[in-house]
TrEMBL record:
InterPro entries: YcjX-like. This is YcjX-like protein. PANTHER family: ATPASE (PTHR38605:SF1), ATPASE-RELATED (PTHR38605). It comes from Planktomarina temperata RCA23. Pfam families: DUF463. It comes from the Bacteria.
Amino acid sequence: MVLTSVTDRLGNAAGSAVGAVSGRFTDRVIRLGVTGLSRAGKTVFITSLVANLLNRGRMPQLLAASEGRIQASFLQPQPDDTLARFDYEANLDSLLRPAPQWPPGTQTISQLRLSFKLAPQGMFAAMAPSKTVHLDIVDYPGEWLLDLGLLDLTYDQWSEQALQSAEGRAQASEYCAKLNTVDGAKPFDDVSASQLAKAYAAYLTAARQAGFSNLTPGRMLLPGDLAGSPVLTFAPLPKSAGDKRSLRAEMQRRFEAYQEKIVKPFFRDHFAKLDRQIVLVDLLKSLSDGPAAVADLEQAMTGILRAFRPGKRGFLRELLRGRRIDRILFAASKADHLHHLQHGALQDLVAALTQSARDTARFKGALTSSIAMAALRNTVEIDLDRHGQSLPAVKGLALGSGKTVGFYPGEFPASPARVMAQARAGVSQWEEGAFHDQAFAPAPLSLPPGYGPPHIRLDRALQFLIGDVL
């Protein structure tokens, strides 16, 4: 019986290996994760990406498109029956209406499969059949992304970090005041726990509105059907004595349940299966919110990357270690809010912001890059006259009023390293002038046949992410 069990295990292992080998000769599947914190533009990015891959007239930097290797591209049913389908058609319709609207933000995990028929290449191309490559695009709420860093923390470690971050923030004043009236060593009661959790969630929401990014647990910002459940009714507390029936002990138990029942399955079922990754960063908003927001964004980006398990892909590596993300792109979104003369400075700044994260990924073997881009261009460039000085600016429809406005955000600092140094030093405001952002409404679209929505460098981003497999 023991010998039979060993033989069965060896047979299963051999079968898995054969399956992995045979998979190399079937259609290639690439899973692209689209991530970014709230309002970074994930939904618009995926909608424009798909529209421009179905109609490739605006994609000259995607070499497979410009060189004619893509014979056809088409949407297919998604392969995972347990995930919602990304509602591409409804999102595109929102942008194509006579009075266009931004599509609703990401509320849950969704997926879309886009397939390509590729012309064969090489000496025997004339005799070879077309090749099929499937691109599975996985979208998920940016708020949930923040929780991956919790997997490496104990409740005490998380509490210490969370309370340290809250210290000095006006948005946390109510929660900090409530903490002063609570003794974690006293017996647990639901009323106290619920009040603390609500006050902490209110602080997280206010802090996000003020421009802070590194806020956990992320599900408190977007609880969905978990609202009010014990797994979301906890909050950070200072260390204290107490037995297993104390308030602090129950808070710790619920934090650990959140790790086990919410965060780990999310990582295992989705993140661990990704091949490529784009991280969208609303850097313009953080710059406008000030040095503290930029410093907090840098911490969030570094923490996010630790969960991505970057590294080189390879046949043996996949058999022995599982899949790894081998290409990561950090993209400063909404570049259409700037004149093209400022795009280089924005790209340099997102590179400086994510340098630590990119260094870690490169050390583990992944290719990384940074870019300033806009998945949907909603402005036109103008020269704005201010006190006799001509400024490189843009104009578009202001969100809310619908009025056409000219906008100049301010002069980018000459040194990205100096910007990051100020942010890390904790200064209250930028030493060199001020930087502003403007919320624009989507511009009316009229798409000629064969053309997707206008964009800035979306084709270059896709060339880095999937150009090698096309």
